[in-house]
Design a protein that fits this description.
- The complex is a heterotrimer of chains A (about 375), B (about 350) and C (about 350).
- Helices cover about 25% and strands about 25% of the residues of chain B.
- Chain B has ten helices and twelve strands.
- In chain B, the strands form two sheets. Chain B has an eight-stranded mixed sheet, with helices on both faces. In chain B, strands 2-1-4-5 form a four-stranded antiparallel sheet.
- In chain B, helix 3 packs parallel to helix 5, helix 4 crosses helix 5 and helix 5 runs parallel beside helix 6.
- Chain C is an alpha/beta fold.
- Classes of the chains: A alpha+beta (about 375), B alpha/beta (about 350), C alpha/beta (about 350).
- The site of one magnesium ion has 3 residues of chain B, from helix 1.
- The site of one iron/sulfur cluster (SF4) has 13 residues of chain B, from loops.
Chain lengths: ~375, ~350, ~350
């Protein structure tokens, strides 16, 4: 038995075990753009979904007398040309615009507020249970009336940057949770449909066709409009997530079904069957893992669609409503001609939405290349 | 789905006088429905296996050959009920199902799910395609351990058992955590062999186990299979197309044609003195590794028979050069013409056929 | 006449193909030479993983993803079907997705892929696969859907939908599939292993290519169908003067089909000779060992088969000198592990890469 003593054909050099996923990771790492997309997303989720209270300088509902104030510019050099290593903002001063007969704000170069890190501010509970009052940045709280609105304020005098951060929590999570539900629904139903065939298959197939026959947005609207107005905001939020997942699982189910159909004929499935494996073992051990890479790629690339759907629905007034704050709600508030004309900083939400979508696409494309079932031997 | 109409219970089965049998297949049938249209109406049947009878003795290798598409794979899979048989009986001398531990005959075609699961420990399969037959997402250790896990036999010392199994088939302990794509074709086939042996089976159904391997690895694998047979007293059903390989490894050889068994005999005898005209034609077509050899291939006239609409009488008659009138109407019986030499041909007694 | 019909078709010169896998770089093809003439059959044999399929794929300019052609050239002496003019193209220089190579693939050079299971799309019927091949060959932009495909043939080949189907049925009949009129509508999983392989063969032959690359075309077939398919290939070879590159493990088949044989080991050609010379006077120790390891029909014996010692070396730690030396029965210490043998002409039209035939000083 000479074979026993000889090296394997591949990778004797490094004693790494090349599982499929470690190969995927190795290939993924080589793709700069995808890694950047991934890092952006991790940062966004961490800052906005995990610790928004710390990142935002103000609490969500902290109102002030500065209503619809313009953003303050962060400066290092003051009007006299003096350089300061510590950045600062000028204080805002109310003025009445005679022509337009409305209140505006201008920066007053006489009043400087220096920006400090880890300043004391509105108290909150970090992660929901650790009481704290520090914020990532802010102005010295001991100065009376000190304020910092780097993206301006809204009509209630709330800091817009803080609102975007808090709004991101709901918007980003609705995409993730909604997609998770889609994956669970889509892959289980798709797998059952592909594996058992017959009546279940017929039903699932017809149902997905039925769903696909409607354009997404009108269907969302119809369903969202059916949510009773008197429900609590949180219930509405979960209902909306469910609706998004419900409308979108069909496409994934079809893909999974197709994959299962071809995997089912592989000899390793027969091998497991011939050893006496149960249906659920074959499904969860042999068939679904083979579809996972496709599912992950499809899911990553369709999360942006979810986020956009929420935004669109809320913008139309059919989705989330205040007091919940999401990017869609923010856009809805900004969505008047008046606001766009006089408080254009309220459109700062859009770059955040675009950045999220781009990051997801960068990540998704990278994952697709890394998981390419044909190049992974 | 189970259309097994008449299945004898083990008690009504009269085992043959030959006390050495392990598997006795009688009149096995598997028809696949042909469906048409939106409503999937059944318009006919592919008679992939149509009345197949054969037996396997303990510790022997039965080679199974025949035209591509004649139902060898289907027969193998129907025996262990990967496909539900349409008819026939599959008697197996099982140990696990007998309360006394003494081997006892059971009809596998009539077992329920739970009993069948137990019997699967005693019968294993080796597949043709070394790439497709191993789950790419499972490590070698998991693959080989899977049958043990399924049967709840995976314990603390199982890893040691698996390692010794891997070493027995020519792999190493450190291959345990590797993944199939890190191995060459021959090594993958060894992983498949190790998996088949992990429950100590008594019968192994090998469906073209060496077809995808190159000659030198094929030689290693054949040697390995023979060694394992001696060590574990295994019986093999060995499906292959390469008749020289079949001759090398088999004690007896069975020949199928369009879902039916046409001849079964001792390997030596079948090759040198075939009794069925199809066997003769098959033997004449074997390519010889000798460029100067002038092949005297018997060219079979006509189309390959269609298992959904087989010819009348003897299925081989449209292509048989010895066919006479009776062949068109009467199906020849599969009978023991000489001791241990079975054949299904009306003219087997009179014909003088050429072997290799 | 003889010289025209036998003129060069493909010349592979010093080809190098590398795969950048995680553990390092695999030199799958490492200085391969190959010549194929019109109307000629060249058999390529060698151990699994020695680079036969990669060489074949390089000729089609279809190296899979982490792989790259890193050196050498593949000269294709392309003959214009109308004017008969011969133009020489280096296939390695072509854009792998470009128009020229797509005309060549399938149309002028047909390939039967090694894995019949994974080379057929599970959602297409056997017939749809053949229509696709036929339409691909005739025109460049292909519409992908079944019905549309039949229409494209209608437009360009002036055949009706029924005739397009007839081509498929006829091809399936030629490769010995029973009831081709019905089987043309079968999906791959409804066919036996051998039937799938024959569908692959039908696809490759349906366009009557000028060269056929057959990568282990008959492994899943029984001997009588195998013989029948070899006949179909020989027929086509005679009628359209097709060149064949025949990759196989089956020495019996190669002895029957090929005029010339190239033996590969670790990405290199180690021996090249006429078929009779190779079987009767093998020069390279590897070829000699290969010929010993096959079971021979009619010689039933209880002895074990001879095997070649050891296994293919680890591609990241290639042996020094002659790559075969750790397994070679004729190993000459101090010589074989130091010097890399070159390709030597050992006889009339017979080359071997072995130091036994080379006058070298240590
Ligand atoms: N799932 C199926 N549905 C319908 N017909 C099938 C199915 N599986 C196999 N068949 C048909 O049954 C017949 C026998 O197929 P099988 O795979 O058993 O042949 P085989 O003898 O193993 O052939 P090969 O040597 O080519 O592997 C073939 O005609 C095939 O088309
Ligand atoms: N997609 C790929 N990724 C990485 N390595 C590859 C890939 N394809 C081929 N190789 C490597 O290239 C080498 C040659 O492979 P090739 O498929 O040409 O072998 P072969 O001679 O056709 O073998 P076989 O007889 O088994 O088909 C092998 O060592 C293989 O590991
Ligand atoms: S029964 Fe008749 S047709 Fe059939 S094999 Fe015998 S001689 Fe030929
Ligand atoms: S060069 Fe030496 S090692 Fe290589 S094949 Fe020739 S004799 Fe063997
Ligand atoms: Mg088969
Ligand atoms: Mg190959």
């Amino acid at each position: 038995m000479t074979a026993a003593t000889l090296p394997t054909k591949k990778s004797q050099a490094r004693q790494v075990s090349q599982s499929y996923w470690s190969l995927v990771w190795w290939k993924f790492k080589k793709n700069r753009i995808a890694v950047i997309g991934g890092i952006i997303l991790i940062l966004m989720y961490f800052c906005m979904a995990v610790i928004p209270e710390f990142i935002a300088p103000y609490a969500l509902e902290r109102k002030s007398s500065f209503t619809e104030a313009r953003p303050q510019t962060i400066r290092f050099i003051d009007a006299q040309g003096n350089f300061s290593l510590r950045p600062f903002v000028y204080g805002l001063e109310r003025k009445i615009d005679e022509q337009l007969r409305r209140r505006t704000y201008v920066e007053n170069p006489q009043v400087k507020y220096y920006i400090y890190f880890f300043v004391k501010g509105d108290p909150y509970k970090l992660l929901g249970f650790i009481p704290w009052d520090r914020h990532l940045f802010g102005v010295d709280p001991s100065i009376k009336d000190a304020h910092i609105y780097i993206m301006g304020t809204d009509s209630n005098g709330r800091d817009f940057f803080s609102r975007i951060i808090y709004g991101g929590r709901l918007s980003l999570l609705i995409g993730l949770i909604g997609q998770l539900l889609t994956i669970i629904l889509g892959s289980i139903l798709g797998a059952i449909s592909g594996y058992y065939g017959g009546a279940i298959d017929m039903f699932v197939q017809r149902f997905t066709e039925f769903l696909n026959a409607f354009p997404d947005i009108p269907l969302f609207m119809a369903l969202a409009a059916a949510i009773p107005k008197y429900w609590s905001p949180i219930t509405v939020y979960f209902m909306l997530t469910l609706i998004l997942a419900f409308v979108r699982w069909g496409g994934l189910a079809r893909q999974v079904r197709g994959l299962i159909l071809s995997l089912r004929e592989r000899e390793y499935v027969l091998a497991a069957k011939s050893a006496g494996a149960s249906d659920s073992r074959i499904m969860f051990r042999h068939l679904l893992p083979g579809t996972m890479s496709h599912v992950i790629v499809i899911a990553t690339l369709s999360i942006p669609g979810m986020i956009l759907s929420e935004t669109a629905l809320s913008w139309l007034g059919l989705g989330l409503r205040p007091p919940l704050t999401s990017w869609g709600v923010l856009l809805q508030e900004a969505g008047t001609v008046y606001a766009i004309r006089f408080a254009a900083w309220q459109l700062w939400t859009i770059p955040f939405i675009l950045a999220t979508i781009m990051a997801y696409n960068m990540l998704g494309d990278g994952l697709r290349d890394a998981m390419d079932p044909y190049s992974a031997r | 789905m189970s259309e097994a109409a008449t299945v004898a219970t083990p008690s009504t089965y009269n085992p043959p006088k030959d006390g050495n049998l392990l598997l006795d297949v009688r009149g096995l049938k598997k028809y696949f429905p042909i469906q048409k249209g939106l409503l999937r109406r059944v318009v006919g049947y592919v008679k992939a296996v149509d009345d197949v009878t054969f037996f396997v003795r303990e510790g022997e290798t039965l080679g199974l050959v025949g035209e591509s598409g004649c139902g060898k794979t289907t027969a193998g899979r129907t025996i262990i009920r990967l496909y539900e048989p349409t008819g026939g009986e599959v008697y197996f001398k099982s140990r696990v199902l007998s309360p006394s531990g003494e081997p006892q005959w059971v009809n596998m075609a009539a077992l329920d799910r739970a009993q069948m699961k137990l019997v699967r420990q005693e019968i294993a399969m080796i597949f043709q395609d070394p790439i497709n037959s191993l789950n790419p997402r499972m490590s070698v250790g998991d693959i080989v351990a899977e049958p043990m896990v399924i049967h709840g036999k995976y314990g603390p010392d199982s890893e040691q058992v698996i390692i010794s199994l891997l070493e027995r088939v020519g792999l190493r302990a450190d291959h345990l955590r590797r993944y199939p794509h890190e191995f060459s074709g021959g090594q993958r086939q060894r992983i498949g062999i190790a998996r088949a042996l992990s429950m100590n089976p008594r019968l192994v159904i090998c469906d073209e186990p060496v077809s995808a391997l190159d000659v030198s690895i094929q030689a290693q694998t054949l040697n390995l299979l023979q060694d394992l047979q001696k060590d574990f007293n295994l019986s093999y059903i060995f499906v292959a197309h390469d008749l020289s390989v079949v001759q090398h490894i088999s004690d007896r050889v069975a020949v199928m044609y369009v879902g039916k068994m046409v001849e079964m005999a001792d390997a030596e005898e079948l090759y040198t003195a075939p009794l069925h005209p199809y066997t003769e034609a098959l033997m004449s077509a074997v390519p010889k590794p000798d460029p100067l050899y002038k092949s005297e291939r018997i060219i079979m006239q006509g189309d390959v028979a269609d298992p959904s609409n087989p010819p009348s009488g003897c299925y081989f008659h449209p292509r048989c050069r010895y066919a006479v009138d009776i062949c068109k109407t009467k199906t020849p019986e599969f009978r023991e013409l000489k001791p241990d030499h079975y054949v299904a041909c009306h003219r087997a007694e009179e014909l003088k056929l050429r072997g290799v | 006449m003889e010289s025209i019909s036998k003129d060069l078709f493909i010349e592979v010169k010093d080809l190098h193909v590398e795969f950048d896998v995680r553990a390092g770089i695999v030199k799958a093809v490492d200085g391969m030479f190959l010549e194929i003439r019109r109307g000629q059959t060249v058999g390529v044999i060698g151990e699994s993983g020695c680079g036969k399929s990669v060489t074949a794929r390089a000729i089609m300019n279809m190296i899979p993803k982490p792989g790259k052609i890193t050196g050498g050239e593949i000269l294709y002496h392309r003959r214009n079907r109308e004017t008969g003019e011969v133009q020489t193209i280096d296939i390695t220089k072509l854009d792998p997705d470009g128009e020229i190579i797509r005309q060549i693939r399938g149309g002028e050079i047909g390939m039967i892929f090694q894995e019949p299971m994974s080379s057929l799309t599970p959602v297409y019927t056997a017939g749809q696969h053949i229509y696709e091949a036929v339409s691909l060959h005739r025109l460049i932009p292909v519409k992908k859907l079944g019905d549309q495909m039949v229409e494209t043939i209608v437009a360009h080949r002036k055949v009706t939908k029924e005739e397009a189907r007839e081509i498929a049925v006829e091809m399936l009949r030629k490769v010995g599939i029973p009831k081709p009129e019905q089987r043309v509508d079968s999906y791959p999983h409804q066919l036996s292993g051998g039937q799938r392989q024959r569908v692959m063969i039908a696809i490759a032959l349906s366009c009557q290519p000028e060269m056929l690359i057959a990568d282990e075309p008959t492994t899943a077939l029984d001997v009588s169908i195998e013989a029948q398919i070899l006949d179909v290939m020989r027929d086509l070879q005679n009628t359209v003067n097709m060149a064949i590159m025949f990759i196989t493990h089956n020495l019996g088949v190669v002895a029957e089909m090929a005029e010339e044989i190239v033996v590969m080991y670790m990405g290199k050609q180690v021996e090249r000779a006429r078929v009779v010379d190779l079987f009767y006077k093998p020069k390279h120790p590897y070829t000699q060992a290969l010929l010993r390891s096959i079971p021979r029909i009619g010689k039933k014996s209880d002895v074990r088969l001879a095997t070649i010692e050891g296994m293919v070396p680890d591609p990241f730690h290639l042996p020094t000198g002659c790559v075969f030396h750790p397994r070679c029965p004729m190993f000459m210490p101090g010589k074989c592990d130091k010097i890399e043998p070159s390709n030597i002409q050992v006889d009339d039209h017979h080359w071997a890469r072995c130091l036994l035939y080379e006058e070298v000083k240590v």
